[in-house]
Sequence to fold (187 residues):
Amino acid sequence: MNLVGMPTRTGSSESSYQHGDEPTMNIDPRFIVHETEHWIINHRINSALPGYLMLGARSNVNALHELPDAALAQLGVLMARTQKIVETCLAPKHLYIGRYGHTPGQPIHFHFIPVFEWVETLFWQDKRYRLLETYASPSPQTLTDGAELTLYVWREFCERPDPPPAPGMSTEQTIDLLRTAFDTTTP
Fold:
């Protein structure tokens, strides 16, 4: 597995998925939330933030224009469905959806980052992140933005060896809840 929680493409004891002639993707099945012919949704493997999902292509491509037409057709519907399920089941204050990273050999993937009220509160309480204020112009609309909170989530919940405790459901409980929601809702 790489640092962003996407599967590696080397052999292991994890479940393997093969699509056509592309290399095998290995994701521990306990992190898989939902699968389609062209996509796998998994909880970000190294995230202590419950509900942080990754939507990764089964095809070994790193650009939208390289995906098969069927995968592209499925992408928008799957992204919208994932957003609706996360917002309905977990009720985050914000849900950031984005494509980050450019690691060679990794399939194109998208992050679904739930930002709960308690995450934003922790961000404001952490004095180290006040340094970010020196780089921004004051805005009457918001005190922070998605870039700052995304950085906070990555550093504190994904990279830190001792992440802050998450109130509420555990990651495992969250995965079970989201699996059930995908299994019981129509696309």
Observations:
- The helical segments are 69-90, 117-125, 146-159, 171-184.
- The longest helix spans residues 69-90.
- The domain at 15-184 is CATH 3.30.428.10 (HIT family, subunit A).
